[in-house]
Amino acid sequence: MGICGTAMGNVALLARTAGHEVLGADAGVYPPMSDVLAEAGITVHEGYDAARLAELAPDLVVIGNAMSRGNPEVEWLLESRALRFTSLPALLAETVLAGRKNLVICGTHGKTTTTSLTAFLLRENGRDPGFLIGGVPLDPPVGQHLGGAAEPFVIEGDEYDSAFFDKRSKFIHYAPHIAVLNNLEFDHADIFRDLEDVQRTFRHLSRIVPRNGFVLVNGDDTNLAALGDMDWTKIVRVGTGETNDVRITNFEEGPEGVAFTLTWGGREWGTVSWTTAGLFNARNAAMAATAAGLALDPSDPTGLSLAPLARFRGVRRRQEIKLQRDDLVVMEDFGHHPTAIAETLRSLRARYPAHRLVAAFEPRSNTARSRRLQDDFIQALRNADTVYVGAVSRADRMTAAERFDPAVVCSTLAAMSTAAHTADSNTGVLDRLLTELTVDNANGPMLVVFFTNGSFDGIIQKFVAQAEGKG
After folding, report:
1. Residue 441: what pLDDT?
2. What's the rounded Cα separation, in Å, for the pair 69 and 459?
3. Low-confidence residues of the chain: pLDDT under 70
4. Are the C-beta atoms of 332 and 433 separated by less than 8 Å?
5. Domains of the chain
6. Would you give the distance in Å from CA 258 to the centre of its chain?
7. Considering the entire predicted model, what is its pTM?
8. Which of 20, 39, 285, 406 is exposed most, by the fewest CB atoms within 10 A?
9. The Mur ligase N-terminal catalytic domain covers which part of the protein (predicted)?
10. Residue 56's pLDDT is what?
11. Maximum Cα–Cα distance for the chain, whole Å?
12. Are strands 130-132 and 144-145 parallel, antiparallel or unpaired?
């Protein structure tokens, strides 16, 4: 149930590869996932129908965490108890992850990229790991793979809840041999009360790593440091600070790309030159390399070659270039948290120093829609020259006092000398952006980056189409 979601669809593909007959249903069935599932021989029904589910009578029903009470199939399952049902994380724990050495990639930011990097490095170093990635990677070329039975399994470890009937974080199910704690901040305001609540679930994760396993910690992150001692397992600290075991040094970013050096215990591991943006992605790479190295050979993890990183192409919707020409660059980015937006904008400033930097932000995630981090979003967006704030998604589900206020954000930014605009709809934002494209494109090159974890009501594609017509 919910098979067309990225995670659910990829798990359905894993189950099909393992030899199971797989059927699914979703409220919206559309490409690309619908095409991928059809090519794998998986039948997908549009909409939810209790009578149909009863007739199909599968051995097991997997309920995605987007499902809630009131869904007709959910209600029938609960009333009849005629079929076994489980959550996606529980299914993975009982099947794909059972008996494997699992590398669980966690953190508020960078999970998808770091999971992709870890799987990519293991493959490029001659192994056949299994992996499950919560996005659309370019490297590896697919988002899921069973891998060899004796090989490690790399999985994106989400702190979000498992299902409407299991409010534990997904990653608690994943039996980590190596747990990667990339960073920790308050997020998912619909699930967690505050920062301490998020720290609690990360602390629970660290407690289930075996004594022959490893916890990899961002040693520069004070919120992770507050988790306290983890004396029951081995800790490897990764970051820029001098107290880290694995250090990122000599970091440089400019128009040609990024270069940095990794050291382990003071000894040089290797130098990386690549086109992937930002110090935050250098951290992701350091975490991924450390995890992959320990999975290959815990006695000599630096035997892992870093050379493949130069070929890493990234993940879709992470600083993804949608249009590039001399006078205009258009990007799409999944950023929906102040820290991620700020880091991306700072990186783009270094990468495109001659460009006027325009940020368009859609307050769509449950955290971004609320007022909890509004001041932090203001500080993050100040890193742009001009800001456009879209309409708050599902605004009617929150009171005016609870929800993010685009007008206040824009007026505050304007008082800080950052031009900022909003509109009643995302179509209105598009109209204003197109006006800027017409007026300001004569004043030098411009970079427009759209930040959203959704579709932004299709305005990204429309803006690109209009811009291509003006090129």
Report:
1. 58
2. 33
3. 439-442, 470-471
4. no
5. 6-83 (3.40.50.720), 91-311 (3.40.1190.10), 320-470 (3.90.190.20)
6. 21
7. 0.91
8. 39
9. 1-95
10. 96
11. 67
12. antiparallel
